[in-house]
Amino acid sequence: MYLSEAELENLSKAHNEWHVSIYMPTLKAGDGILENSVRFRNLLDRAEEHLVEAGVRRPEAAQLLKPARAMIDDEIFWQQQSDGLAVFLTEGMARNYWLPLELNETVVVSDRFHLKPLLSVLSNNGRFYVLALSQHETRLLQGTRHRIGEINLDEREQVPQSIVDVLKWDDPEERIQLHTGSEAVLDGGVAAIFHGHGVASQDDPKENVLRYFHRLDAGISDLLADDDAPMVPVADDFMLALYREANTYSQLTEEGVGVEPQQLSSEALHQRAWRVVEPLFRQAEENAWEAYEHLKGTEKDRVSDDVERVVKAAAFGRVEGLFVARGAHEWGTFDREAGDVAIHEEQKPGDRDLLDVAAVETMLHEGWLFVVDPEDIPDEGLLAAVLRW
Fold it and tell me: What string of DSSP letters covers 352-370?
C-alpha cells in the first residue's frame, strides 16, 4: 500500500483498545524472501506475547493477528521489493506498507499505533518522488535520503504506465498496435510508434505523447493529492519539455534529469534525482534552524525542548514545527482529556513513544517536521519545537 499523509492520519485516528505496530528490514532477492517470512513470523509471535502480557486472552490476541498470519506464506507478497516493511493491526483494520527505509525490528503494543519510524518518509527533509518517463514504461518511485522504492501502479488504473494504455482505448473498434518495423522520428527523438484507424497516426506523434502525458498527469495528481514532496522528472530533454507542458503537480522540480530512464536501475535513478533535491532539502532545513535559533534568542517562550510541554502543545495544534531525533524514544503515557503526560525510564506495557505523539500531532496540525540525527538536536535533547503561541 502507498504511504501518504492521508494514510498517516487514518492510522493516527484508529482508536481501539489494542494496536499492534510491527517494523522490520527486508531482503530483496534470493534466499532473503524466505528469511523475510521467517523473521515476520517471529515478530508476530513476539506481538502475541506482548498482547498476552498486557492482559489480552490468547485466543483474542490470535484473532487480532490473524490477517498478518495469512501473509506469512504468501509468496507473491514477499516478492515485492523494498527495504522495509511496516504492518499495523487493530480490530477491524490491517495495513501494510513497503517502505524505502532501513528499519529496525520493532514490535509495539499500545492503545495507539507507533508511527514515528514512518516519519522519515513523510518529513520535510528527505522525501521525494522520481517520475521516470517513457512511452513504453513509466515508473513512479518514492525516495528518501538513503533509499528508494517503486510505487506499484499495476492496481491504479487511473495512472497509465505506457502510451499504449491511453491510445488503445481511443478507438473501441480497433486496438492500437505497436509497430514492429521502422519508426518515424520527430526532431528531439520522439518516435511515432503507434498506428490505428482514426487515432495515433504517424502524422502527429507529438500530439499522441501529449495526450498520454495529460492522462498520466491527471492520474498522478489524483494519487498524490495534497502532497507537497518534490517530484523529479527523468526523461530525454524533448520528453521533459512535453511533460512540463502537461504537468499540473505543483512540486515538479524546475531541474530534471535529462536521460532516457528505461535502462536505469532504481538505485541509479535515486542517485541522479538526489543531486536535484538535496540542495532544496538542505536549504529548507537551514531556514528552519535559523528560525528556531532566532526565536530562542528573542522569544524564548516560542521554543521548547521539553518533551512534556511539546507533547501537550502538539496535541492541541500549537506546534508550528518540530525537529525530532532519528531512532530515539521517550516512553510514557499521554492522557489527552486530562492533559497529563507521564515519562517512564523504561517501556511499560501500553506505553507510547512520546516523541511519536509529538511528531505525528505536529504533522496532522500542518506543522513542519524534520527528522534529524540525535547529535543535531541542541543541548543533547530528543526534540526541539517552534511553537505557534
Answer: EEHHHHHHHHHHHTT-EEE
If DSSP states are collapsed to H, E and C, what string results for 30-44? CCHHHHHHHHHHHHH
Percent of the chain with pLDDT over 90: 60
Q: Is 156 exposed, middle or buried (0-12, 13-18, 19+ CB in 10 A)?
A: middle
Residue type, 175: R
Q: Which helix (H) or strand (E) holds 258?
A: strand 257-258
Mean pLDDT on 275-303? 94
**Within the chain, where are the H helices?**
5-12, 32-53, 58-69, 75-78, 119-122, 163-167, 205-223, 237-246, 266-298, 307-315, 354-364
Domain with CATH 3.30.1330.30 in the chain: 299-387
CB 174 within 8 A of CB 196: yes
Q: Pick 128-280's CATH classification: 3.30.420, 2.60.120, 1.10.10, 3.40.50.
A: 3.30.420
Choose which CATH entry (3.30.70.330, 3.30.70.120, 3.40.50.300, 3.30.1330.30) describes domain 299-387: 3.30.1330.30
Q: Is 162 helix (H, G, I), strand (E, B) or coil?
A: coil
Phi and psi of 257, rounded to 5°?
-110, 110
- Find the DSSP H helices in 152-265: 163-167, 205-223, 237-246
Strands 194-195 and 106-110 come out as unpaired
Total-model pTM: 0.71
The architecture in CATH of the region 5-113 reads: 2-Layer Sandwich (3.30)
Rounded to 10 deg, the angle between the 5-12 and 354-364 helix axes is 130
Residue 314 near residue 385, CB atoms below 8 Å:
yes
Contacts by 291-294, CB closer than 8 A, 24 or more apart: 291/321, 291/386, 292/321, 292/323, 292/384, 292/386
pLDDT tens digits, 229-287: 899 999 999 999 999 999 999 999 999 999 999 889 999 999 999 999 999 999 999 99
